[in-house]
Amino acid sequence: MPGIVLVAMITSVAYSARGFSGLTLFSPMILAVVAGMIYSNVLGMPAHAKAGIAFSQKRLLRFAIVLLGFQLTLGQVAGIGLGGVGIVAGTLGATFLFTVTLGRLIGVDAKLAQLIAAGTSICGASAIVATNIVTDARDEDVTYAVAAITLFGTIAMLGFPLLAPVFALDQHAFGLWAGASIHEVAQVIGAGFQNGTLSGETATVAKLTRVAMLAPMVVALGLMARRGGADASGAKPPMPWFVAAFVAVVALNSLVAIPAQIHSAIALAAQIMLTMGLAAMGLQADISELRSRGLRPLLLAFSAFIFIGCFSLMLVKFA
């Protein structure tokens, strides 16, 4: 209980901090990571809080990922058409492969490269957390990946709307580009609706289609981990329970009409639990470990950001 209370307090600080000028552009998740890091590295980690922090980091995060399934229906995916789904899927796959390959070439740790690849290609912090359940990277790697992805996602949210007239993108095309390339759901919505209602709706559906692809991506990573030589006793299952539950929730949300008030409550609960989980990660992050990573992971995240923006724009313009 002490650890859960501490995580809840830091989560409250993260939500409250958004009211300050200059912090409104940042999601509560990244603010929670930063607040957790400041607390643990300045005041230290209380020993009696470790169990609750571990609970928040693992169980709450997995349950929150399941709840994300309530944001998506199969009908929404169909709304952007087969061409739109193809652009989203092609961009996701190409970006993931590019990031992992470049990470290997420039010497970034393979697990950290996978986290950056997942955050860039799928859905930001949520994808990083979900991927880490399979990759089992260090907490410092997760924190680094979340921070880097949030940085470049924020740049995209602010900059991409300014590029729509430069590339002669109408509202549908810009929405598809934003949804296929910007990292976080909130960042996509912010960028999309800045260019109009149709643009915002198209961007949201495209982004949620990427979120739906989180499940097969995590399953694929689980299978790759098993083929990578892990012994049978320590191998991760190829279908973690939270992935199966995520798919089931998407199917349920597609078949059953759920009242809007319940949808809103579930979305809020998912965001709060994700924020609590990331606050817990921040509490366990050692800044000296982050510094030891150097500039290569940041270069990798920047390169992935440039690649996904350019590749998806090319598909939107010429596919």
UniProtKB/TrEMBL annotation:
Q: Which organism is it from?
A: Mesorhizobium atlanticum
Q: Which InterPro entries match?
A: UPF0324_pro
PANTHER family cross-referenced by the UniProt entry: INNER MEMBRANE PROTEIN YEIH-RELATED, UPF0324 INNER MEMBRANE PROTEIN YEIH
Query: Which residues does UniProt assign to the signal peptide?
Result: none
Locate the transmembrane regions by residue number.
26-48, 60-78, 115-134, 146-167, 238-258, 264-283, 295-316
Cellular component, GO, one term: plasma membrane
Source species, domain of life:
Bacteria
In the record, the note on similarity to other proteins reads: Belongs to the UPF0324 family.
* Short name of any one Pfam family annotated for the protein: Cons_hypoth698
User: Where in the cell is the protein located?
Assistant: Cell membrane
Coiled-coil annotation: which residues?
A: none
For this entry, the protein name equals: YeiH family putative sulfate export transporter
Q: How does it sit in the membrane?
A: Multi-pass membrane protein
Q: Which UniProt keywords apply?
A: Cell membrane, Membrane, Transmembrane, Transmembrane helix
